[in-house]
Amino acid sequence: MILRGTLNGNDVYVHNEGCIVIGEEVWLNSYPNGSVFRTALNTYSPNASIEIGDRCKINGTVIHANEKVVLGDDCRIGPGTVICDNDSHRVALSVQERARSPKTTPICIGNNVWIGMNCIILKGVNIADNAIIAAGAVVTKNCEANAIYAGNPAKFVKYIEQ
User: Fold this and answer.
1) Active site includes 89?
2) Which of 15, 89, 100, 155 is catalytic?
3) CB atoms within 10 A of CB 1
4) Per-residue pLDDT tens over the stretch 69-127
5) Are 18 and 43 within 8 A, CB to CB?
6) How far apart are CA 65 and CA 102, in angstroms?
7) Phi and psi (nearest 5°) for 14?
8) Are 130 and 160 in contact, with CB atoms under 8 Å apart?
9) According to the 3-state scheme, what is the secondary structure of 56-110?
């Protein structure tokens, strides 16, 4: 793990077979105190990475990376959120096929993105700068900058006005 600055928070689980890079003044919190929502950073292969930008506040969120998950600067993520760059398992009738490594595609979350509680961010998604993901959303496709997304699957709601 590479820590570029001050790390704040409590009761975080780390499973690191790859590389985890944490920016300056980052908060990783398990909420409340890990009894309900525990923050966890998981890389599952030597080539997997999680990169967390400066001044991010991550509360009770689980990040799974078989390949790569990147969070820009100043992101806020609510409790109960799961960010996963892979399918966790294959869908097949064959036991041997199910046991193969899951399909994986990197996730990129831009700067100043807010993700509400109990969201799911799935593989291959890019969330552009200043986007807001409403609580409970399941993000399966890319999200534009300066916009709000909500629902399952997450859909565009409106642009954020200045």
Assistant:
1) yes
2) 89
3) 13
4) 999 999 999 999 999 999 877 777 888 887 878 889 999 999 999 999 999 999 999 99
5) yes
6) 11
7) -130, 125
8) yes
9) CEEECCEEEECCEEEECCCCEECCCCEEECECCCCCCCCHHHHHCCCCECCEEEC
Pairing of strands 147-150, 155-159: antiparallel
At 55 the three-state DSSP class reads coil
129 pLDDT exceeds 90? yes
Q: Which residue is it, tokens 């996963």? A: 84
- pLDDT score for 79: 95
Contact (Cβ atoms closer than 8 angstroms) between residue 26 and residue 44: no
Q: Can you say whether residue 11 is alpha, beta or left, with left for phi > 0 and alpha for psi between -120 and 50 degrees?
A: left
pTM confidence score? 0.92
**pLDDT number for residue 2:** 79
